[in-house]
Each structure stands twice: as structure tokens, then as C-alpha cells.
Specification:
The structure is a homodimer. Chain A has eleven helices and eleven strands. The two termini of chain A are 33 Å apart. In chain A, a hairpin with a 5-residue loop joins strand 10 and strand 11. The first copy, chain A, is of the alpha/beta class. An eleven-stranded mixed beta sheet of chain A has the order 3-2-1-4-11-10-5-6-9-7-8, sandwiched between helices. In chain A, helix 1 packs across helix 10 and helix 6 packs across helix 11.
Chain lengths: 329, 329
Amino acid sequence: MAVLAIDVQGGDFGPSRLFPAVITFFSHNPQHQGHVFGHSADCATFLQNLPSNLRFQGTDQRLPADTGPAHLIRHQYHSSLEKAFQCHQHGQADALVSADHTGLLMALMHRHAVTHPAIERPVLVSWVPTVKRPLVMLDLGASFSATAEQLLGFAAIGQAIVASKSSLKPRLALLNLGVEANKGPQALRLAAAQLSTWPGIDYCGFVEANEVFSGALDVVVTDGFTGNAVIKAAEGTLDLTLNAIREELSVDWLGRLFGLFLGGRLKPRLSSLDPRRHNGALLAGTELTVIKSHGHADSQAFQAALSKAIEAIECQWSACIRRQLDQSL
Amino acid sequence: MAVLAIDVQGGDFGPSRLFPAVITFFSHNPQHQGHVFGHSADCATFLQNLPSNLRFQGTDQRLPADTGPAHLIRHQYHSSLEKAFQCHQHGQADALVSADHTGLLMALMHRHAVTHPAIERPVLVSWVPTVKRPLVMLDLGASFSATAEQLLGFAAIGQAIVASKSSLKPRLALLNLGVEANKGPQALRLAAAQLSTWPGIDYCGFVEANEVFSGALDVVVTDGFTGNAVIKAAEGTLDLTLNAIREELSVDWLGRLFGLFLGGRLKPRLSSLDPRRHNGALLAGTELTVIKSHGHADSQAFQAALSKAIEAIECQWSACIRRQLDQSL
């Protein structure tokens, strides 16, 4: 049995979309419990249908519309997000799920948790679709660059996550602009020298971003700026490809006929390749377990984020990561 | 009439693949002329069929197999690449085309040309497929990061290229990890402040990498590390998508039937979305006009690189770029 603290105020749609998703998820998963945090007025309509494993805790305060991370670090509001963090920090929940901005989640992690000294700040871990199963990629957060030490911290986090579910050594690579050992910035080359001596991983050297999707790796380590560029480029390319297929199949009746057939057959497969579908990123590196959902998640996607939180609890990622980070120092 | 200097020794296949491509191209384009540079022994078999607008200049020296850029800057060989550079530098050709490594081309540009002071070293400009026509993206070279001044230099180069072919103001954006003005590293924010005052462009602010493919932009500016990651991620995603379609259509006879239909219909369209198909990147920022082909280019792709060189000459990119860089200082 796991207990989640869920803030339903975040994201592009707030409670109107997220609260029903939470109700559906916990109706189907009666073995787990949830504390739902939201604005009392916004959530009133959903309270009649609460399953017995959900509790709602309302608040009348909202975060001001333009709240930035720097402001939120200095000013405490009785927002639903803040209350969800307090609930998790005090041990009343095993993990927290929110669709709010990474920056705001980072700010509240700063207030409610201690970042492991091996990394400067929490890291955003994401699961990226590949030819085989999704791989772990980090950092996808707001870091612009990463020192060799930080890259090693990212590697330790990725290693801990993969090792928690498999007895095989995680196949881990560093993202670079070439595969040769003498390529790239010094931080990468220093990190590579260290990683090649780590006994717990199968270090695969430098890879370029196309290798991320090949299915030959379990963990890809990079800085947040590059990681974000890779994921967004994948999303853009997938959209471009699907649009081209759609256009090509709409020019005549034969194409439309094939399109009808393909829609049912290819759509599920192709949408499984979309990074946006693999919702639920882990903000790792503190004693808390925080799962970030996309802001525009639909019901299915938000439920995927809730499942990811359950997985994080059951695999004890937070503890495994901290143990691995201790060793990496 | 344009004159090209072409080194056929570079790339994964050398003269066996590149020389026939050159012969085909110049047979179809009798208005242009080419000086072909290659190793005499490797090229002997191709010399009987030379069209009258091609001249071959052989050499008996090769670059040592493991020559790196740093070595090549200090040591001069009578290689075919070196001779092609000399030919272009001395004005006997209007542009140079090679499938050799970016690093080696950079080293020889260093020897044979002067980089404009607005950028620290030559920049690799590439054309990326989008929903509409390909956009100009730079740097895709070996720079690991870029200062605000360098980003402005990149912007000036992109502006010059697009403006040489269109009277509309180029729509130009900076690649970042968010679209908000306060996002990202300082170099990007400083460059953004400058670009918003440039009269010759339609500055579109920050974009994330998915926007590169949307067709709403003419130029995207980024550092070489991120640019490489974006292109390679696009290639990887395209491969992933096509493999998924192929697999999904091979499970039964109905799928294979549709696959036959789709092969003829979709393949040309989808392969036009592949960045690898848009062969021919411009090494910009000196008085030379150097076009770099992919190392694994096939005949069609190498001919695309030759066409790009003709376009560069006819649009006078080198002069336009230097004028624009002068203004950006």
C-alpha cells in the first residue's frame, strides 16, 4: 500500500481535468491511498464522488498568477502545492505528484528537503521511448550546463533507478557531439574517465543523440539544456512525420481508405513513441519522492504520472538514489 | 557559370562513390566547371569518362589515417584536400566541396582563410527539414557553447543567407529550454536583447527544439553542441518512427499489402523529412565558400552538396555574410 500527496491545482487545466483522473486512478487501485490538495471552491464539485481511499484537503489560498521560483523560495503561501509538500515531508504520504512548473517544484523542494551534496540541485529524470523499452534520461531540468561532478551524480541516479528493477548492469552513456573519446567539452571527458572505472555499470562511452532512441542503452546522461533540446526535437520530429503521413493519405480516396485502416493500426504504436505520452518525471536527489506531470496532461497521462509515483515508492528509488549518490562522492 | 573545387578522397567511400557522382552532376550541368582533386591511383579508372567541363588533378600523397585537426594545422601535406583548398584560395574555383571531417576542413580553413572577427571560428550552417521549406540552423559545428557575441554572429550569418533569396525579413529565433524571456543562460538573454533591436530581421524570441520543425521560422540560432543534439535526435526519432511503421505493417498479409502501397507513396515524402537527405552544409565566416557533405553520402546526396555549392556561389553567400557580420560588430 502506497500513499500519494496530489496537488490538482497545477497544469494547464487544474482540477477540472486532474481531479477526475485522480478519482479514476484510485477507484481502479483500491490498495493505494491519496491525499488530494486543491482550492476548495475549484474542487467542490468533485467531492461527492470521492472513493474511500481518497481524502481531500482544501485551501482558500492560491499562488499568485505570475509566481516565479525565486519569489516562491522567499514567500510561503498556504497553497495546495505547499500543503502537499508539507504532507509528504511530514511522512503522511510516500510521494508527491503535481503538474505544476518544474521551477516551482524545485523552489518548494528547496524549502522542504535537502539536496544530496553530490549534485547541486534536484535533477529531473525522464523516461524516453526507444525501439525497445523506454530509457532513463537525465537531467531534463533547468540546468544550463553540468560539471563533471554533476554528470557523475546524474549517472549515479540513473544507475540506481535502473538497478532497482534489474540485476543486469545498467548500460550507461554520456551524450556528446561525437563518439570519439577526445570529442567534446572537458567536463564530459573528465566524467567519462571516471565512469569507465565504475564497477556497477556497463559504461558505453559517448553517444550522439540519435543513439538515445536505438534501444541499446538504459541510461543517457546529459545537462538539462541539451536534454530538453533532445526531447523537444523528438516531439517536433514525431509531429512532422505524422503530419506528413496524414497529408499524404488525404489527397485521394485510395489514400483515405488506407488512412482509415492505418489509423486504427498505427496510431497506438506511433503514439507510444511520443515522449509526451511517457508522463511522470522524477525530481530526484532529495529525501522526497516528487513526480512531475506535464502541464497539458490529459486524464490518461496524469494517471501515468500517478502510476510512476507508485513505482517510485515500490522500487524505493529515493533511498536507492541516495545510497548510490553517497558512493559517487 | 560557376567553378567548383571538389575533393573526392573524403567520406566513408572516397572516389569510388564520389567521383561517379561528380561526373553525373557535371554531365547534367554543362554550364558549370569542376576541378576534381583525388589520389591518382584511386581515381585512375574514372578519368576516361570525364566530361569536358571537368578537370582532374591527382596527387600521390594522402593524409595519414589518423590525422586530427590539431596535427593538420601544424603539418602541411600535398593531399587532395589541401590542393582543393589552394585552388579555391587562389581564385581558380568559386567554392570547395568535400566529404571530409568538419575538424579537418576547419583546420584547412584556418590555414587558407581568415575568420571574420565577429565569430571566433567558422560556423557550420545546415538546412533542416520542416513542415514547410527547410530552415537555416547554425552552429552545427564543433563549438561546445557560444557567447552572446558569437550567437549574434551566427544570427547575422543566418540572416544574410535567407535575405539573399527573399525580400521578406528572415524570421529568426534563439533555441532555449523555454520560451519565456527570463529563461536560459545569460549569453542567450544578452543576445536576445540585442536581436530584438535588429531592423533587418523578424525576431521571434526563444523557441524550444520542437519549434525548429514547425515551418514558422527561417533561422534558428544555437551553439554547436545543442545544434548537433537536435539534428541527431531528429534523425533518431525518424528512424524509430519508420521502424515502428515497418514492423507494424509486417505482422500479417493485410499489413504487408498496405505496406506495398505505402512504400511507393510515403517513402519519398518521409525521406524528404530526414536531415541526412538535405546534404551540403556551409562552413561560413571566412572569405572562402566551403560546402561539407556527409561522410556517408550516396551519389544523390553528394550531388545535392554540389548543388548547394552552386547556390552559395550564385547567391553570393560568402560576401553577403561578411557584409552582415561587419554590421553586427
